[in-house]
What we know:
Blueprint: E1 2-8, H1 11-27, E2 29-35, H2 41-44, H3 46-72, H4 85-92, E3 95-98, H5 105-115, E4 119-123, H6 131-134, E5 140-145, E6 153-154, H7 157-163, E7 168-175, E8 185-192, H8 199-222, E9 239-240, H9 245-253, H10 261-269
Parallel strand pairs: 1-2, 1-4, 2-3, 4-5, 6-9
Antiparallel strand pairs: 5-7, 7-8
Amino acid sequence: MKILLCTKRDLVGNIMLNRLLPALAAxxxxxxxxxxxIRPETAAVAELGWxxxxxxDLPNQLLFPLLDQADKAGQGDHGSHWCSFDALARRHDVxxxxxxHIAQSAELNRRVQQxxxxxxxxxxxxxxxxxxxxxxxxxxxxxxxxxxxxxxxxVNPTFWCMKAGEADTACTLHWxxxxxxxxxxxxxxxxALDYTRSLFSNWIANYGNGAQMIEDAVLALGRGEQLxxxxxxxxxxxxxxxxxxxxxxxxxxxxxxLVDTADYLDLLARYLPAAPAALPAAA
Length: 283
């Protein structure tokens, strides 16, 4: 089965590929399309700008180039550790395209049609597939949405769950149709929110929760199995809006931090080779 994975060129997309490619690339022919949507609100809302820094800017401008530089110098012992996009392509023998901001739907259509996949799998992608792209995939297209559908459609669902003080967030795996977050549901998997940790940490954990759903679904399709799905109830769909500075202030008043430094450094440590054994103490 030929699979086109569509995601962002950011930390979440990279983490998801590190989790998914060992199983999927071993069983199927996989190609990856990376893109980054340019969202003007990240410049207008300071908190969104900070989240973008930790999600996109620091990994793309510092972490991944340093990892690639270490690889070229023969120092990138990544045996059991996460690695950059370039190293993932080499390790799993997959083609990874970097498309940047796909301003025109015709360009996304062209790239999907050129890949000619049996299945499209989208997560943290940010671009809408037009009918011409969806029709290019024999089995259709799956999307992982980082919220409970149909109740939390739209962007930033984990933020809105934490702002409201809810006990859980969720990931939803669904088929993509011609609407936005409207396709038939395969699974909605909840995740308990940890209010001792930051918004960023809960958001990352929620995507990790969804990686297993993708792996299970793709491997089942590869075995020729049908994936039971149910139609969404349109009257229950609610699109959450983009957070404003006032919304972030309300989240802070609840005691929720945007990013926790210790958690973030622990996450980045997953990319580092194992430390050498300590030398024995001198006699």
